[in-house]
Every structure is written in C-alpha cells, then in structure tokens.
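Appendix C reproduces, verbatim, an entry submitted by the partner laboratory led by Prof. M.T., so that reviewers can inspect both the input and the predicted structure.
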Amino acid sequence: MPRNLVAMELAKFFGVLAHPLRVQIIEELRNRELTVNELQAALHVAHASVSQHLGIMRNNRIVIERRQGRHVYYHLRNPELAECVTQCLSFVSPDAAESAQILSAIEKAKDLWSDH
C-alpha cells in the first residue's frame, strides 16, 4: 500500500508540472524570487494567468510566497526542482537518427509540394 500512495503523490506532482507555463515559471524562479508582475513581463502572458498557475503551484507545495509590504515574492520551495527540469530535457530531445529522419521527411515534402 505505501508504494501506491507514493505513486499517487508522484503522479499528482507530475500532473502539476504538466503545463508548459508552470515549467516556464520554474525556470524563471531558478535563481531568484520574483513577483507576479515580473513573471508576467518575463513570460509575456496575462497577469491573471500567471497568478492562477502560481496558485496551483503554491497549493501543491512547489512555490512559496514571501510578502514584503504590498509586494508578494515567489520562490521555489526546493530549488533543485529547476535542475531536475533541466535534466529532463534529455528525455524529450530527439536522438540524431530521429532528427535526421524528420529533416529528410521535411525535405521530401518540400520537394513534393513545390512540384505541384
């Protein structure tokens, strides 16, 4: 039973990370804390969208907020998460053979489509 509980918690955690904007927020918070306005400017998305995603991340213990006067600063609860995200790039990067195959298919499509 403990394995099931751990698996469920990990699945929930990965589900929170499953949104591209949340991954970008993690990368922005890699080395510093930022306000919603600073994140909005860096990511070029609506203020409400950043706030909504930060709320989800806060509720799932990924970010922590710190209030200073009227400003709310966000930082990663565990800064190693940003490194983990970077390490995951190797799982989504195509290998050389796959890249060559895709590029070849693109070139063939260009040739075929430009003849018509």
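The helical segments are 2-16, 20-28, 36-43, 47-59, 80-87, 89-92, 96-115. Additional entries are available on request from the coordinating office.
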